[in-house]
Design a protein that fits this description.
The protein is α/β, with parallel strands linked by helices. Helix content is about 35%, strand content about 20%. The strands form 6 sheets. Strands 1, 2, 3, 5, 11, 12 and 13 form a 7-stranded mixed beta sheet that branches. The N and C termini lie far apart (about 55 Å). The relative contact order is 0.13. The chain binds D-xylulose.
Length: about 525
Amino acid sequence: MPLYLGLDSSTQSLTAIVIDADADRREVVFESSLQFDTALPQYGTQHGVLPHDDPSVAYSPPTMWTDALDIMLARVAASGLDISRLAAIAGSAQQHGSVYIGSGGLARPPFTLSRAVAPIWMDCSTSLECAEIAAAVGGNEVLAARTGSRAFERFTGPQIRKFYKTEPEAYAATQRIHLVSSFLASVLIGEHAPIDPGDASGMNLMELTTQRWWTAAVDATAPGLAEKLPPIVPSSAVIGVLSGYWQQRHGLPAASIVAWSGDNPCSLVGTGLVREGVLAISLGTSDTIFGLMREPRVSRNGIGHVFGSPTGAYMGITVFRNGSLARERIRDSFGMSWTDFSNALQQTPPGNHGRMLLPWFEPEITPPVAHAGVQRFDLDPEDAPANVRAIVEAQLIAMALHSRWMGVDVKTIHATGGASVNSAILQVMADVFGADVYQFEVGNSACLGAALRAFHAHRAAHAQPLEWDEVVRGLAEPVKSSRVGPVASRHATYRELIARYAERESTHAASVRT
Ligand code: XUL
């Protein structure tokens, strides 16, 4: 039976999952992960990001990602699996980050980069460029209606514009601009790869409904950009085969390479959200809340995004920057383990006696907060358990508040990402949303989603297409026994708290914005 490899290059780590799949059976047969900071210390990253004096700037080294890929392919080759059965590989990557390629091919490393670093999704240094692009296309509402999002600092278009303005010569020397996803796909096939609509919709450059580059936005971003952008192909396109370089280096077969996508579009598949009505919450470096959308209902208040879905429809998503690193900041400041963190949550009452915080340890995406600044209300900064409850409640209340634009009456939530193993956090989630929360056997839904996309595309390419329900069956289904149900009285408490939180949030987001 064929094997399918999914790879996920996230902010902090690279993960691989191999599934053994046919029409009747799917099974994870290999899973491995490496942390960039510890596996590749020579790059000096912290949580996968290069230290920088300006807190609004976030860069990572693209060669660190390709070195990680090399290590991971060696692990897959040495896994003991009959690797000659490897039929297809697809990938998932952190969204929005951009890689700038100069002249010279991609047949084998080292590659000629016209910019040594890649700005990533945590970068928020492009407010000016956002304003310029929005103004040039007729305003943020027009941009959102066409591309699915108003201008956002981390989106690739504003990032490209800043590069063009600050390093015009390096921009001119750039032959091709890739997303992290299309860059790593290129490395695997040994030539420039296309971009899929799921990840292209995180650029402020693609027209959502036609899945083509939108000329007005491209022209507003930087001169000559149209020639530097890869073509857009459907997410299920087979874009080539594993290049001779990787086949020889690791003894791998000429597996098909399927277009890579963003981690959130891949997670949509990996959490089984192939139908409308259910939302997923991913608790990772970023916290995200998302669900499938049959029609693109763009956020009117400029909060969320509509991206392309790998299933061919759309997805609504809201993204929070202060995710796992904010939870870790609280945990570490009190010298706690994760078990202590869960105990603290259990010791404190829902609603926290009205003690509250706004969790902006770093600048925030939702709502837009340009400068870090944690705000506490009736909350003693030394009270460990109360601070633990306050961060978790703040994050989940913010998610409930800022996912309303999707118009989903949330009854079921699929929880994924590192912190989704914590059932005390999931209880707060169930109570805040008044919804049943389920966990998954495979915690890394982005990576699993990539493996399932490889399966789906390979079957379709061999005239044996499978419906998406069939593709996700068995592996990307919530574990029924993991259900965490809401408690009605607590949900009532949170319904009141949400209004108070919203008021405080809007006052303070405005005051820390410049
Ligand atoms: C999505 C976003 C983050 C990154 C994290 O818009 O900015 O979720 O994709 O990897």
